[in-house]
Amino acid sequence: MEEQKEKCEWFEEWFNTPFYHILYKNRNLDEAQLFVQNLVRYLQLAPSHHVLDLACGKGRHSIYLNQLGMRVTGADLSLNSIAEAKKFENDRLDFLVHDMRFPIAERHFDVVVNLFTSFGYFDQQADNEQVLKSIHQMLVPNGKLVIDFFNLHSVLKNMKAFEIKTIDGIEFNISKRFDGNHIYKQIDFVDAGKNYSFTERVQGMDVDQFNHLLKQAGFEVQAVFGDFQLRPFDQEHSDRVILIAQKV
Fold it and tell me: pLDDT tens for residues 132-183?
């Protein structure tokens, strides 16, 4: 029974493989930088502010925030991602391996950002509540939280049941489904004669669910945007749900 308890979560295993980074290697860096610029402008961030990039991956948002003058900490559960991110550390940018369900000891932040659908990985709603409770604890009074998530309505309307992506000579067979609670993304491929199979699982959450969770955790939602240019959210047409919330 103990061995079952110690079995790692799907995201611990998948995010730590080189294949995860191959599949998602073509993420748009220019788009990410534009998003960060817009957030900095909207939140009126200054060099005196300390930003936490929670679930930072290899740190692309963290690094750019730091280049724009902010003091930044990036945290992620993936050992491989943090090892890569640490190559960019300086006296105002640091990275650490951390489970976002728990507060970082003895650190407080002016702003916490959780970007590129890095929320809702868990089976239980209690885990989401724990994440937000920990963020609330780490924020200074009146601190801000930014959550960037997919627009569930748009995703379900446009979701492909099956597709094949060939990247770096690897043919990724990808199938998706929604069970009413989670979106499942099954990823199967062969590399060097070995079969691999991974499943991504993200809770399908809409704006109302986020509003409820955030209010319950002690936040007040101040704005909801629908894309990286921070245009107003529209359920039918927006690609993203970007929530700006303040600790109350």
Answer: 999 999 999 999 999 999 999 999 999 999 999 999 999 999 999 999 999 9
Band of residue 107 on the pLDDT scale cut at 50, 70, 90: very high
Domain boundaries 2-150+205-247, corresponding CATH code: 3.40.50.150
Total-model pTM: 0.92
User: Domain limits of the chain?
Assistant: 2-150+205-247, 155-200
Residue 228 burial (C-beta neighbours within 10 Å; 0-12, 13-18, 19+) = buried
* DSSP 8-state symbol, 119: S
Residue 176: strand, helix, or coil: strand
Q: Which residues contact 110 (CB under 8 A, 6 or more apart)?
A: 45, 49, 50, 51, 139, 140, 143, 144
User: CA torsion 178→199→133→57, rounded to 10°?
Assistant: -120
